[in-house]
Structure formats: structure tokens, C-alpha cells
Design goal:
Strand order of the largest sheet: 1-2
Strand content: under 5%
Number of domains: 2
Order of helices and strands: HHHHEEHH
Number of helices: 6
């Protein structure tokens, strides 16, 4: 393939197809693991390989708006319909959207939102003492985990009361 500034339609389609296969493989690994067909170790190895390959595509997309536009719908589909935890894919899509001002679900992403989000977080949470707060919460959680349950104390999933 001849080197050019712009990616060919074929290259964009191949990248989109590869990403779709990788994200489908992520779903398959998750389903096989949940079903008991894969050990945690084997699933982890699969996930590691998938993550590295997806990272490579994401790095290319950070450099090229054309690639970013080609893969954004694939990432969005994975976020909305995939079997796995959508947060990593959401972060990748969000970075691409900020970098290239992509339109996602009818909204153009603006990097100025980053400063606004940080300011909002600072106004709601004391970030200057966040490490100390985390240590306090960890200590509380450890105490709670070590505490023996009393007879008659609620057990099970509280969500279903």
C-alpha cells in the first residue's frame, strides 16, 4: 500500500473490521469465562492480547481523524451492546472524540469540557486530601470485612430486599 497522508477507504474498512473482530473476541472470552469454559488465567491472557491490539488501533486513530471516524461507530456499538464492562471502550472513544472533535450521538466533543469536568469535581470533592480520605475509607472497609456477622443480621443481596 502506497504511503499517503489520507487513509484509503480499504484501509479504513480493514481497520474497522479488525476492531469489530477484536471486540467480538472480547465478548466471546467473557462469555466463555462466565460459562466456565475458560480459566481466569487463560481469559486474562486473551484479554491482554485483545487490549494490546485495540491499543494499537486507538493509537492510529489518535493520529488520524479518518481512522477515528471509521472506528467510532464500532466502539459505540460495543459500549451499547457488548457483554463486557464498557468503561475502557468509553475512555478510548472519548479520547478520540476530544482529539478530533468527533460527533458522538449528535454531540460534538470539545476539549474545553475537560477543564469544566475537573472544576466540577474539585467543587464537589476535596482533592487536596483525597489520599488521606482513601486511606480512611480503606481502613473502614477492612474493619467492616473483619467484623463477624451477628445471628439474624441481613445477609445476601440487599438489592432484592
Amino acid at each position: 500500500m502506497e504511503k499517503t497522508e489520507e487513509y484509503s477507504e480499504k484501509a479504513k474498512e480493514e481497520t474497522r473490521t479488525l476492531l469489530r473482530k477484536l471486540l467480538t473476541a472480547d465478548d466471546v472470552v467473557r462469555m466463555r469465562y462466565r460459562k466456565g469454559g475458560l480459566s481466569r488465567e487463560k481469559a486474562s491472557k486473551f484479554y491482554g492480547c485483545i487490549a494490546v491490539a485495540v491499543d494499537g488501533i486507538a493509537l492510529s486513530a489518535l493520529k488520524s481523524k479518518e481512522i477515528a471516524e471509521a472506528i467510532a461507530p464500532v466502539l459505540l456499538d460495543k459500549i451499547e451492546n457488548g457483554w463486557g464492562y464498557p468503561l475502557p471502550w468509553t475512555h478510548i472513544l472519548q479520547m478520540l472524540a476530544y482529539r478530533h472533535r468527533l460527533e458522538i450521538d449528535g454531540e460534538v466533543q470539545d476539549a474545553a469540557e475537560i477543564v469544566g469536568a475537573y472544576d466540577q469535581l474539585k467543587s464537589r470533592m476535596d482533592l487536596d486530601n483525597i489520599e488521606e480520605r482513601k486511606a480512611e475509607l480503606e481502613e473502614e472497609m477492612e474493619k467492616r470485612a473483619d467484623r463477624p456477622r451477628l445471628a439474624g443480621e441481613e445477609q445476601g443481596n440487599q438489592m432484592y430486599g
